[in-house]
Amino acid sequence: MWKSIPPCLRRHKKKLLFLGGVVGGIAIMNTYLKRKFIEWEAQKTAEIGDQLKRSSHFEGTMMTCDNVFLTCAPQIRQVVCKNIDVNQVVKQVSTNPPNKIQLWEELKILVFSQALGEMYAQCMLCILLRVQMSILSGYVFMTRCTNNTATEQQQKYMSRIEDFMLNGITRLLTRVRDAVEKTLKPVKLQHSVKLQEVENFILSIQNTIFAGNFNLLQDVSCYLMPASSSSASEDDFLENISLETKDVIECQDFTRVLQLCIDSGISSLMDRLAECYGILSDGRNEFVNPNDYSAPFAKLIPIMHNVFCQHNPTEQGSLVHTLLQLEPLNNFAANIYEAFSQKDV
């Protein structure tokens, strides 16, 4: 029996070699595929872990951004009231001076400039905070830099929000006031207006702000971005991140989202004006729909000013909270963060 095995092996030598090659190849391929599967599995696990870290980091960034905006909202009110001082004119009107009509005309411009100026400033600050913090957080996540130099650079970058608060809002209020005066100056104080007509005035003011050589949407970076400083030009990080921020601010997506924010602001402002018309119609014995009620423009002005002063900019239901929950704005911030958190910096 054993003697027949060697001749059998010699006769089937090629077949056995081929079979051995096939079995060996399968074994090698199996080992290779197992190793590749383990590597792929480890890579996917790392990617999922990285995505979870990125998601958690972004959520923390947005919470910080929300808190900063809620802190800045009352400061916006202070800046607006300081630059557009209605109380001084109100005091003069209360003394019944000879130029009372002229003062009321001025009061008409100031009250609308205050309300609209605060609304535009809130919209612009909210989107600016979203952009800056998304870019900076993306950089931080990518580089993992936490040394003193990096922290100082990050603080300098975010401190440019102060420039908008101190200078940008002032320039914005000048632009808004000019547009308000151009639109409302022809409107007589005794002219009886409905809520819809007031909304048309506000939309006309917006069209004026967005038109001409000083189009707010086209020149928005002039209001939001500070002038280049020597410290920024000497620091590569600050110079690069400032240029990238300016690129984001000047892109079409930014303009589209800012327009959506302003639309929400006008809607919020119209809710306040409907509240004013509700107060004006309270003296009637029967229910009157605020949309159907008309009142002399002069009667609307003091009530609108009182509603503006009594309204807390950070209360629930205010424009501030509406902006924080605006989905296109948050999606825009998420896209910015995603881009910069994966960027080779």
UniProtKB/TrEMBL annotation:
Q: Which InterPro entries match?
A: Peroxin-3
Its Gene Ontology biological processes?
protein import into peroxisome membrane
Q: Name one GO molecular function term.
A: protein-macromolecule adaptor activity
Q: Where are the transmembrane segments?
A: 16-33
Q: Name one GO cellular component term.
A: peroxisomal membrane
Q: Which Pfam family, just one, is annotated for this protein?
A: Peroxin-3
Write down the superkingdom of origin: Eukaryota
Biological role:
Involved in peroxisome biosynthesis and integrity. Assembles membrane vesicles before the matrix proteins are translocated. As a docking factor for PEX19, is necessary for the import of peroxisomal membrane proteins in the peroxisomes.
**Protein name, per record:** Peroxisomal biogenesis factor 3
